[in-house]
Amino acid sequence: MIGGIGKKFSYHKTGFMLMKLLHKTDPDIIPLSMLLSLLQTAIPYSGFFLFARLIDYLTAGNYDEALQTAILLTGINLVLGLLVDLLNQAVEYKGKASALGIKYLIREKALALDLETMENAGVQEKINTTEFTMRMYGGIDYIAKCYQKIFTAVLSIALSIIMILTLCFIKPVSSGVLNWTASPAVSLAAFTLVLSIVMFWQRGIRKELTQKQDANRKSHVEAEHQLGYMLNQVFLDYTKGKVIRIFDMKGMIMKRYGIWRKITRRVYEEMTAMYKKSITLNSCANGIFITFSYLMVFFKILAGAVSIGSFTKYAGAMAQFSTALTEISENNSYIERMCGYMSCFLEFLELENKRETGSIPIEKRLDNIYEIEFHEVSFSYPGSSEQILSKVSCKIRLKDKMALVGENGAGKSTFIKLLCRLYDPTEGYITLNGVDIRKYNHREYLSLFSVVFQDFKLFAFPISDNIAAGKKWEEEKLLKCLKQAGIENWVQKKKEGLHTSLYTVNSGGEDISGGEAQKLALARALYKDAPFVILDEPTAALDPFSEYEIYTRFDELVRNKTSIYISHRMSSCRFCDDIMVLRNGKIAERGSHEKLLEKAGIYANLWNAQAKYYI
Ligand SMILES: Nc1ncnc2c1ncn2[C@@H]1O[C@H](COP(=O)(O)OP(=O)(O)OP(=O)(O)O)[C@@H](O)[C@H]1O
Question: Where is the ABC transmembrane type-1 domain (predicted)?
């Protein structure tokens, strides 16, 4: 399932799978948490037994034994308390470290997935939901903590049931009405009845809470996502500051922010009211059970079934039982809330890379004889019915300089995305040297292309990492590519040279102009030295001199390679051997510059329209 916040897994199945994942990242956490639960349970119960004994010794006047019991009680409490503290810290620390490891897993998967899947709105929603949940409510370590608390509560319940049943079955020694009220049959029946009422009540409270959480989930995630966008990419993104000021967008931005803030506030208020209600109702259920417990023990003491010292033991066990029921109910609600969100994370991890279908390696050819052909290729973007390309068939001629021309939105960039297999055709297929490109190993196939995208992206990393794309770089080759792109002098003037960081002005980096950035993007494409060079509007931000230089060096830049050039500057297309004109999703015209002018069709119209302004 790709789209939306799904509920593919049940809450506890999600929880179980998350715990498995946590166990994989650190196999110690779960055993340590279980040990912690055992110790946490041992503290109150050892206390109940020893305290009961202490009171009995005191009431019987056995002061020596009373003193020994008091010392034992204090010692056990001290040792267990210390161990619980140490274990708690270890589990907490390990949990946080694993949560970071799991965050790393998300980022690694996001980079490994194919672009088509990552662009899908449903997938983005899954990532947003996971990130938001971990930020707002804690990560998988928090869910593990809830499970640990539930485990402690279950242990506590098991011990208290044994004690309560023992108490129920102890027969009174007195006669009359007390004999009847404290009899095992009545004690058992009363205990079962009160327990059923309390459990039924708590189940109702939890169900209502879960329904409310489910209803609020979608709007909550969307509102938080919008607020996150406003905060990180509008208010704090100084590069948008000039547009905001020139177009006086402050009012509009604050209004939008206000709307989303109102939605989040409403969600929080509703959830807080619901939590308050559930805590109050749980406390009432708790109160009923504790009152019943005290009465039962009280009757047993009056009927002579147990000693006065046993009051603390049995009443304590019953109070523990009731608290443990509430703990289970509350932590179950937290788990349901978290797992409701975090099931998205598991669905995201399950997504498969659509591009990892092929395995044929790409033949390494020094002669660069790679021939690509489109066979009746049609394409619509996922989720859209609009056909961007329709039954396009064409061969990209070997080592030609080809130009792709067409009006805005004609599908030129889409053609390139299909060629590089960032997307697969909806119909038809593409071949490389006669073999369907889906059969090739995708990473190897991608290595054939060097592209300067229209929206080329540089990163706030050093220039060297931007150009060599993080690979081990050779200085000489790097400088040569920078020179070919016309930006070598600019880089050499920088104090840090190739190590200069881009954009991070606040921490010693360099802010760069649009044209400089485009030249660096061109240098990156040249450094890759792939057999296909694709340049999508590569000179749009360049000044006339720089553009002229690139054109004159174009032959040298793409020598011995197949190149595809996309530009709305028609004059640049004349350098190309083959021009393809796209219109309405089809190849409307194809030929050399001279041939297409002669044809007096779309290309000639585009050429003449532009030529008019340059005469
Ligand atoms: N990721 C996407 N999802 C949906 N539609 C898209 C996506 N990318 C592009 N389109 C649509 O596909 C059509 C072709 O876009 P494309 O970018 O291929 O055109 P182009 O010829 O390169 O345009 P331009 O000359 O303006 O750069 C456009 O209508 C565009 O809105």
Answer: 32-337
